[in-house]
Amino acid sequence: MLSTTCRNSSTKISSCLRTSTSRRWYGAPAAIQALDPRRDKTVQVTHSRGVNVIHDPLLSKGTAFSINERERLSIRGLVPPRQQEMDKQLLRVKRNLDACESPLDKFIFLSSLQDRNETLFYKLLIQNLEELSGVIYTPTVGLASQKSHSIYRRSRGMYFSSQDRGAMSAMVYNWPHDEVDVIVVTDGSRVLGLGDLGANGMQIPIGKLSLYVAAGGIRPRAVLPVVLDVGTNNESLLNDPLYLGMDHPRLDGEEYYSLVDEWVTAVTSRWPNALIQFEDFKYPHAYNLLKKYQNRITCFNDDIQSTSAITLAGILASLKARGLQQDDLSEERIVCVGSGSAGVGVCEGIIDCMVAQGRVRTREEAYKRIWMVDHHGLLGNNEIVDDAQPKGKRMNELDERQSCYAKQDMPDCLPLDQVVERVKPSVILGLTGVPGVFTEKAIRTMAQHHERPVVFPLSNPDTHAECSAEQAFKWTDGRAIFASGSPFKDVDLGEGRYGRTNQCNNSYSFPGLGLGVTVSRASRVTPNMFLETARVIASLASRSQLKEGILFPGVQDLRNVALAVGTRVCEVAYDEGVATAKLKPGELLADVVRGSMFIPDYVPLVHQPY
Ligand SMILES: O=C([O-])CC(=O)C(=O)O
Ligand SMILES: [Mg+2]
């Protein structure tokens, strides 16, 4: 467990790392260092020349090629004569970006920059992470996904579709890079809270992987965004002549699972060490795939597991903010609205934590602390007659994961307002994808019973949040502890007081997780990695920040958060015996992790003939 004594977020993160690594040290993984020319800041070697260098976003320096490089790489005369360093380039791209009128224009501009010059793109992104994560990631990436087929410029990543059956093990060799550390894959069936967007879902893996690089320090050439295009049930996309995905309804059942299986076999045969992140798969496919693969390959599901880690971190931090014991979650009364992959995943993480804290004896006891509500109402007992809903309406739809939460002493399908009235929850979580589901009545009722009600509308993008920050603070007289999946501005409460908003998004958890898994070359992603991720993040805000309702460091600090999480995940990997990177004694683990993080600086580019 990391230190909880530090004060401000950046000193806190670094001293947490010291505390963490003082327990043990590991040597630098020589094999890993040797793979990346950027880590030791020496040179980058390429077989390419001329326009192939200028047009390769991983090699291109735009106008920053030196005279020497221009000569040796045969690009003399192919770029303007003046050599311009990165600071000037940054000035130009930032000005152009600021001139874009809409967030979608900014998205298109940044995608084009990423396609021209990844080093510059990542420098700009890291320097402006808070502002730009809202463009390349939620909320704007949601709009960009909806419009992806009409704003399409250039392909990024790989598509595997229903017409590629039998060809996938060959297709994976079409990807130009032998080293792939992280793959983010979606079938586009539940893109954020926006539903089925088919092949347009590609923008999500691209955005996630941009954060893997910017925050998690994974190398740009070692990431692979993937869409499994199994069709779409989105009629308006199917009828749109510009749509770029397969024009048939979604495959399901055996047809679906065998296609995913062919893909998993193909990618793991070419890149056996890569971490696979399943993203935005609809329930129950998300769970079925996780169950099938989590003990076979290095993989996890972002919406189930890393959303769970950050939400747990938020609840743990809120305990401290409310002057309660962080190591006792079992006194909380939690209403979770949403029973899909994220809802169930978040609740499982909370249950795991309650059990790990040793305050409940069994999981059954822990389930009693969570009331789950779906679009029908409470998951309750359909034997208890309630006029509000016809008896037996929904119970048989629940699977074994959801039915653990069904309350035997309350009527099934009880509406949210009545659930809140009866339960008097301290925490309400929204994972529905349905905007406005948190009613004024429900939140006001919470505020009557709790000094600081914890209100987390977590659905993305912001237009799909269960309530806005403004509503949460208005309905609680400014007393809410508020966190949302997508960013909301702090709310001016008057008289110099502000309602502080937190972004409780898995972007706080997955980059560090991927970093730790990559550096340790963990063969499995284990439940403890998520629990420890939550604990690390929950320990990062200072006492005074917590008092104000600030639960996490800001988005601008995501790189430091990833470093703290990555270090802890590495430790867990070695402790649990799943790490496979061969380490020699000599360095602190935190230094190894920090030293492995990609930094977007130009290094001399050297041509090497084949
Ligand atoms: O992408 C995000 O912002 C968080 C996430 O995984 C989701 O909402 O599906
Ligand atoms: Mg997601």
From TrEMBL:
Record GO cellular component, one term: mitochondrion
Signal peptide (residue range): none
Active site: Y137 (proton donor), K208 (proton acceptor)
One GO MF term: metal ion binding
Entry superkingdom: Eukaryota
Family annotation (SUPFAM superfamilies): Aminoacid dehydrogenase-like, N-terminal domain (SSF53223), NAD(P)-binding Rossmann-fold domains (SSF51735)
Keywords: Metal-binding, Oxidoreductase
One GO-annotated biological process of the protein: malate metabolic process
Required co-factors: Mn(2+); Mg(2+)
Entry's family note: Belongs to the malic enzymes family.
UniProt-recorded name of the protein: Malic enzyme
